[in-house]
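Sequence design from tokenized structure. All designs in this work follow the same two-part layout: the structure record, then the generated sequence. An example of the structure record is given first.
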């Protein structure tokens, strides 16, 4: 039976690929909803991106708008990496879909409560929506199977020397989620920077069908910022959180206690792992540390080929 999942996102180039990866595996993952949160760009823009993407591939998945900014302070966006739209590059047609009337928290609550099977949450954005859900309705934890998130890093950051973007944008929310007691798998920079795609592989996508070409064009833009930051390839951060659910054997991991720093001047937003031989607190997070890059890309390429065939067939 397919595992019911909700993707909480801020599309976002790599968010889009994560969503497509999930959509291509309906026998394994049942995408029962998408929620959006201010992050890579402001809320209205990233919600529109999610709806355009779903419309492009003909996937009628309900989308609920969530928090426009973090629990405290003002929103910091990823516009430098993702552009003015949040998903710059190809120009997608207007969506034929609209968001549901419910807000993200109420939408998730209803979907989780009504699911016959425990739901897996896949936050690949700042954790504001998830923290609000768990704070307002702590009883909902009973029907959450696990959280597979993209965020953090136990070695280094990317916004600051210690903090990764998704955690940095709302560390107070991240602390609530990491301290929730729900089983968490963290796809942080330690693994996602290794899940890179290179220019020749991106070029190959643009020789294929409509969905592969779309992804190739997205990555053309997304790779520009990575190169400015000294990377050779373009890291596919968010798809790791979906790939873990589909093919956990592709990854190596450590089980550690991870806390989120909210106060330090140099370390705010840092995911601090206890790697001592004898920690004084129990582990709470499975931290992904390595990935079989070739097999990971084969999974993504195979998913895009499935969607290419589906879209071509539906368009006649």
């Amino acid at each position: 039976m397919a595992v019911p999942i909700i993707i909480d996102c801020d599309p976002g180039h790599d968010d889009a690929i994560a969503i497509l990866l999930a959509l291509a595996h309906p026998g394994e993952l049942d995408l029962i909803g998408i929620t959006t949160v201010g992050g890579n760009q402001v809320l209205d823009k990233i919600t529109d991106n999610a709806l355009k993407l779903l419309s492009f591939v003909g996937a009628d998945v309900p989308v609920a708008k969530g928090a426009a900014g973090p629990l405290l302070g003002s929103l910091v966006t990823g516009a430098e990496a993702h552009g003015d739209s949040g998903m710059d590059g190809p120009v997608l047609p207007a969506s034929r879909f609209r968001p549901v009337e419910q807000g993200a928290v109420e939408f998730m609550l209803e979907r989780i409560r009504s699911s016959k099977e425990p739901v897996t949450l896949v936050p690949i954005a700042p954790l504001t929506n998830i923290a609000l859900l768990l704070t307002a309705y702590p009883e909902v934890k009973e029907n959450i199977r696990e959280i597979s998130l993209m965020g953090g890093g136990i070695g280094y950051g990317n916004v600051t020397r210690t903090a990764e973007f998704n955690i940095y944008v709302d560390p107070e929310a991240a602390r609530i989620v990491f301290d929730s007691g729900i089983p968490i798998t963290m796809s942080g920079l330690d693994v996602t920077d290794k899940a890179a795609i290179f220019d020749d592989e991106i070029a190959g996508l643009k020789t294929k069908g409509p969905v592969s070409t779309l992804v190739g064009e997205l990555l053309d833009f997304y790779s520009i910022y990575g190169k400015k930051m000294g990377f050779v390839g373009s890291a596919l951060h968010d798809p790791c959180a979906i790939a873990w659910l589909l093919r956990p054997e592709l990854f190596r991991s450590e089980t550690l206690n991870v806390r989120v720093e909210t106060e330090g001047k140099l370390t705010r937003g840092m995911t601090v792992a206890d790697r001592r031989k004898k920690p004084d607190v129990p582990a709470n997070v499975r931290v992904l540390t390595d990935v079989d890059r070739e097999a990971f890309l084969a999974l993504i390429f195979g998913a895009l080929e499935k969607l290419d065939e589906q879209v071509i067939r539906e368009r006649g």
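The mean pLDDT is 97. We note this feature because it recurs in several other targets discussed in the main text.
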